[in-house]
Amino acid sequence: HIGSTQIPSLNSSGGTEGSGSVPGAGGTEGSGSVPAVGSARIAVKKAQLRSSPRPKKLEKLGVYSSCKAEGACKCNGWKSPNPPPTPPRTDQQSNAVNLQDPCRSCSHTLGDHVTHLENVSEDEMNRLLGIVLDVEYLYTCVHKEEDADTKQVYFSLFKLLRKSILQMGKPMLEAHDNPPFERPSIEQGVNSFVQYKFSHLPSKERQTIVELAKMFLNQINYWQLETPSQRRQRGPNEDAAGYKANYTRWLCYCNVPQFCDSLPRYETTQIFGCTLLRSVFTVMRKQLLEQARQEKDKLPPEKRTLILTHFPKFLSMLEEEVYSHSSPIWSQEFLLGSTGLQIPIHTVISASPVARPLYYSPSPIQVEIVSCGSVSPARKMVSLLEMSTVGEKRKPSEPLPHEDAKRQRVVGDIPQELINEVMATIADPAAIPETNLLSAHSARDEAARLEERRGVIEFHVIGNSLNQKPNKSILMWLVGLQNVFSHQLPRMPKEYITRLVFDPKHKTLSLIKDGRVIGGICFRMFPSQGFTEIVFCAVTSNEQVKGYGTHLMNHLKEYHIKHDILNFLTYADEYAIGYFKKQGFSKDIKVPKAKYVGYIKDYEGATLMGCELNPSIPYTEFSVIIKKQKEIIKKLMERKQVQIRKVYPGLSCFKEGVRQIPIESIPGIRETGWKPMGKGQGATQIKCSVKTEAPGYYQVIRFPMDLKTMSERLKSRYYATRKLFMADMQRIFTNCREYNPPESEYYKCANLLEKFFYTKLKDAGLLEK
Question: What is the mean pLDDT of residues 738-749?
Fold first, then answer.
């Protein structure tokens, strides 16, 4: 939903008439927005749930209620012993609710989870049920949203609502300040503008201006703000932190409450002032006028003059006052008349409140390159003609099928319901561990990622241009990059660095902190050859060891995935090889030699390294995903251990003379998840004696060798040459394959260990070509 516009009819006067059928505009692919009918669908679900029998309501609330049984049970929500199938069947009859049904997690009854709701009124229970559905919907938004800032807000609201259910309280947003965030508001400012510029007009003409002002206020209330990251990609801006704060407020108080009605909702024009208006006015005005010009022949005759003639003039005059720091319309005193009384706003201009759902676009949005290499999502706006028909019923688009429904199930997969259950546990506010940046287990780029989210650092792809005059800020950043590369790469001629940094064929991913350049990666793309050459990579010395280098490279990887270039090549000196290895580079080059010979610069004394990108990996969030996956596996292991936590007596059969037994006969072995391997699974044996472990081994293998013998030879300095050491190791692999059948695990392990051994030799430069 971010970076798109949902615009009401320009031929309406700002009332609610016709505004209920606003079609969805294009949005960013993968954003957390929902179908146009999402808000109405949630309202229907809430109505259905609130009309359910009380036991059904208790069952729903029990899922989000901690267990109250004696013994300090730590279960944070009741899990049905008979979960519905995945995906659920539409023809399935709902089972009767029994308060004695045990929880699948803690075995206590449903009644033990809802004892606190026994004396709660129906109205209070219906209020809590509304919050439950909002929690479930926000959970979906968190997992669909791709933008980090938006995801973070969704997740904070998710935790807030879930906490409200647990504590049976009302959700209260904790913030340093509450709405309104600026005075005068946008609505008051526009009202003052009408009074300031048009109070002398006759009544009829003045009414036309009022209609235009209402129309403009409705546009703002429908406007979908672009994310801070998208705003940065369009080009440098002065107040990134301020815009990010306003974006977060807009999400919490204006946007999300449109479909989560358990949160208080405000109109954008009533709680924000000139700061937000200045940040969106230029782009908004340009798009509205362009849209009006494109559809001028389709507009109703009675509205054509209003929209095509008067509205552009109105916007031009308003623009002067919006960006003028001396304009009286933003003065609180201007609203006071000569009598000292405030003008009643609603009698002049007030945008009528409307219900506005979020929108989701199933089709990918094209990315366009703007000047100096910045990236900006393309805009797609709603047709004015579509918006001009008053009261017309529109067919709602079908909801998108969930991606998991399309994914083919694999034998041995963990049930999706169990995954969702574990994810809900991880998402529980009480279960989320605090991030400690000093922890040995924290990711290298974690601190940098958090700084980017707070707006401390920014990333911009920039470059010089011969076709148009570059922005002054871009030129200053290029000079800063040239200085960073020169200081950090002293063996590289300064003139050479300058030539490449300012070469229009090269681009640089710059790292900006407090308005100055502290690092960057200079590169040249070869789209026809399918690779990019990384020329320079450096972070200024006093900003190193903070994860900036890793985060820089991750941003570069995602930038190239968007441009369908999936291979990096670079020449690394001896000091940089370690860094590039950590970023996934290897000396094993995947790009065919014919593709890059003659294209990239060859550096004496440097090592050619390459990196193949996986377009399925979100590199800037990769460490977070891995951390979450580890947490999921940990939780699954804990659940499995609870199921199999049973101690069996030891095996006594060997004392009675039995030499070997089938593994599957060991008590409890199958409960752990063990399965026989291969065709001869019924004959898998466990043996009691080392002497009988490999019968006839010395008759088959004439020259045995093992790692223990090699260790003793190494300590006694037996290996005078590299070839002696390699010969003994190779003998281990050869003997193993000669004695064991190809389908055995030993045979497969020998192959794996052999491959690992020679890879290490190659990396250490010990393998002759």
Answer: 90
Total residue length of the chain: 769
Q: Among candidates 34, 28, 25, which has minimal Cα distance to 367?
A: 28
Inter-helix orientation angle 240-250/148-167, to 10°: 40
DSSP per position, 266-322:
--HHHH--HHHHHHHHHHHHHHHHHHHHHTGGGS-HHHHHIIIIIHHHHHHHHHHHH
Interatomic CA distance for residues 521 and 509, integer angstroms: 5
Query: Going by C-beta distance under 8 Å and a sequence separation of 6 or more, which residues neighbour residue 574?
Result: 605, 607
Instruction: For residue range 209-225, list pLDDT tens digits in order.
Output: 988 999 899 888 888 88
Q: What is the pLDDT of residue 357?
A: 28
Q: Across the chain, what does the average pLDDT equal?
A: 76
**Could you tell me if 313 and 321 are in contact, meaning their C-beta atoms sit under 8 angstroms apart?**
no
Identify the pLDDT of residue 417. 72
Query: With 70 as the cut, is the pLDDT of residue 243 above it?
Result: yes
Residue type, 50: R
SS3 408: coil
For the chain, the distance separating the N- and C-terminal CA atoms, rounded to the nearest angstrom, is 55
Binding residues: 537-539, 544-550, 575-578
To which H or E segment does residue 519 belong?
A: strand 516-526
**Residues annotated catalytic, as ranges:** 533
- Residue stretches of the annotated binding site for acetyl-CoA: 537-539, 544-550, 575-578
